[in-house]
Amino acid sequence: MGALPDHIVRSLRVVCIVAATLATQAPASAAPDFTLTTLAGDSVALSSLKGRPVFLNFWATWCKPCRGEMADIITAYRAHTDQRLAVLAINLTDQEHVADVREFVAELQMPFPVLLDRKGKVRKSHRLRGVPTSVFIDTLGVVRFVNQGPIAPEAIQRGLSLILPKGEP
Questions:
Q1: What CATH architecture applies to the domain 25-163?
Q2: In this predicted structure, what is the pLDDT of residue 3?
Q3: What is the domain partition of the chain in residue ranges?
């Protein structure tokens, strides 16, 4: 078998580039910066958290697995506040009502900032394929682990072990 013709090779390169662009935020890549408003009305920029380990969780009130994993995320947050872990719960507000978000947050007593992605820009910049999705970002702003779908406690620990200061998972 001979080499592929040049036009086929060029087409394959384009397909690979497009596929890479459409993939979920990849580990070892810089996390895209964003600024969103919290449910409380404050603004939070991801870049303002540089120097801290960050756990992003993309969720929606209509997502049953999102509800199921939130207790484990809250537990992880409380267990690691002394290591300066920042948890940001990013709601897909472009797909639901803020009143539903408020009710969900109150019911589950979420202790960390809840950010409202009203236009879906952050969801798109992180190339989400669905919710829930969790993204673990190290102190340098580099994505270290992405979990698509419901996150189990073991996966939370794995993500935390990659972003928390060593010896403090």
A1: 3-Layer(aba) Sandwich (3.40)
A2: 63
A3: 25-163
